[in-house]
């Protein structure tokens, strides 16, 4: 049970800091409703679960393998965030001009895949989980406790992403269409800036 609690803490620790993915999930909930926002959040949570599984199975081995390509993974991450922010901003402006719902962007499977992709290219996630697992007592690293840790990560990450999707859907229901568009535009501008920040830091 202790490893399940550690998994919960680890899952919330990686999911709760407000970043680009969190902003995008709220935006998806606001633009397309809870179901699509939940699909996006489930994609992000799945990436966390995958990395937690890899961490408990491989320990530091994968960290060593990822280190030589960490720069390229960060570049891909920055470009993906930049592209999604620009795409979301364009859709938000289009919605503002035409004042209509953009139903064509609201595909659950598509959102799941996109958010799985943009979350899984972050190499720091595997380092984070591997460090936590390796910091545990060796006697605690039984198969049952490893599964408990992964389960804790999954419950924490999915519950947090679901909350973000719900908050976005509440905004969709209760905020005026003009304010929704404004929030979507601001959110995507922040995502663009975060993507640019990654690329600028890497170029220094």
Structure, briefly:
The chain is mainly α and 204 residues long.
Can you offer a commentary on this structure?
The structure is a single chain. The protein has nine helices and no strands. It is mainly α and 204 residues long. The model is unreliable at 99-104 (pLDDT under 50). The chain has one domain (2-203).
Order of helices and strands: HHHHHHHHH
Total of domains: 1
Number of helices: 9
Structural class by helix and strand composition: mainly alpha
Give the low-confidence spans: 99-104
Secondary structure layout plus pairing:
Blueprint: H1 2-15, H2 20-32, H3 34-58, H4 61-66, H5 70-98, H6 108-120, H7 124-134, H8 143-174, H9 177-203
Jot down its keywords:
204 residues, 9 helices, 0% strand, single chain, mainly alpha
